[in-house]
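User: quick one
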Amino acid sequence: MTVVTTAASITPVRRFDQRMLWLAALLALAILGPLLVSDYHVFQATQIVVYAVAVLGLNLLTGFSGQISLGNGAFFALGSYVAVILLSKAGVPYWITPVAAGAVCFGAGYLFGRSAARLEGLYLALATFALATAFPQILKLELFERWTGGNQGVVLSKPVSPIPDLLGNDQWLYYYCLAVAIALYIVAWNLVRGRTGRALVALRDHPVAAATMGVNVVSYKSTAFGVSAMYTGVAGALGALAAGFISPDSFTILVSIQILVGGVVGGITSIFGTLFGAAFIQLVPDLTKKLSEVAGALGMPALASKLSDAAPAVLYGVLLIVFMMVMPGGIAGLVRSARARLTRTRRNHVKT
Amino acid sequence: MQAFLHQLLSGLANGAIYASVALALVMIFKATHHVNFAQGELAMFSTYVAYTLIEAGVSYWIAFVVTLAFSFATGVAIERLIMRRLQHASALTSVIVFIGLLVAVNGLAGSLFGSSIKQFPSPFPSQAWYGTTYLSPHELGMIVVTLVVLAFVFVFFRYTRLGLAMRAAAENPASSRLVGIRVGWMLALGWGLACVLGAVAGMMAAPILFLEPNMMAGVLLYGLAAALLGGIDNPWGAPIGGFIVGVLENLVGAYLVGSHLKLAFALFIIVAVLVFKPSGLFGRTVVVRV
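Assistant: Done. Structure below.
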């Protein structure tokens, strides 16, 4: 695990004021930005928030507790379906559904993690890969068709803003998602900095030593799985509310891979890197679409159709490989080392 | 009874595909301790190459051989360019790189060949010349081709110097280096051979599954299940596991859970083997000393 081990959990709380400043600026942007842009961009921002929560779930599991999961897409799907079924069949108010989805996914993740707790590294990756590949078939089952809508999926009506004069429906949903996400980030931040986080990092870096120190391996590993599934499930529920439509084919292995790309690009052992990762997976397909429009306008329709068809996939794949070889710490790692270099030179300057 | 016999035999035919994929996975695992998640996608890409050649008017068997050569070169190139940098990488790094390869090859196939479903020709006659309808000529052909390939692999590893050198390099790299074996190139050859096996599986599976970029996703899952069932470090176990999984998949699909849950059955095998008997049926139990 040496490659991705970073100092995330042991960075002392130094230069506190400056960090708070960045955080405040980010919050201001997140809160004020959507008031100024079009509905489509608000929708995009909502998607980024949703992906950020999902990527955060993966980072807690893979980055901090060292369990490789290629199957978080399955929990994303489960969360979506729980929310949609509660909404459309049970008539539950929409704002409760993410809570319910999180609870169900925590249970499912805990059970899966418990039975997979003895699998290490590669073998866990295999098991979760199989889970994510097989999951759409389970969703299509006729047995559940009464609730899931089978192949056809389910269409939802979007949540309505209670203050239509002030905020449109899209903006209202965005702020709702943002509030949930902020709460989850605060929980994750405290989880990672505290006793639990230290136990998880110890388990990741040296399982035998951790067990000797009295860390309950099975319990911590399965709890980490449960928490990760909970985050991903909440993201799935929010995503379903934002998209307004779900079907089994929206949840192929590609969802898991997108979450993985977000984690790797942002930095898998980072909490705030997840924001970069989420923005990346949301904006790259748009970017390649723009590129293909440019190619089309320049009179290269063949290139244009190729770009729009599969370019995001190729780019995702190549970037996964390049990032692991060149900067395994992701963007967060890059920022961290740049800052470390800056402060080091400054301090040397003071000494001499 | 007839239906049962039919399910059994066509299960064996599917099993032939899984056996090839599983053997390819085991070859790479034994040499490098990595699981090649991109095995299926590489096989799919090779099949597209064969399809393009056949469409251009090349006869089937020539296209077959050219495709095998292409796959071999691709495998060697991937090992030399990407995978050799991963020799001492953690499980997380290698898994992510393999997933990256999977996505990239899948996307590349989609953009080069389009994502529409294509009909891939079978080299075998469509009418059965033997007196039974339990097994179509293509299914019989799949089994025969796979057995021939397995025999070739066996002879290669058992009776040639190069095969022996490759086995040595996988078993004990340090000592092999001391007796003059170029371990790096042996690993590259292993990758090439694994890609050839995958290509055979792809070309045999394509007439049944139809050619499209996601053709091998399910096959890979069954291949993984087969490799784990046979013991992921045992080259003998892989083909046996493949045939077992093929037959079980068909019987379970026909009589137990219905064809909609076939992939979930692969998931069940994978999790059950990993949790209850990680060494598989024929694998070596690994004891780790701490």
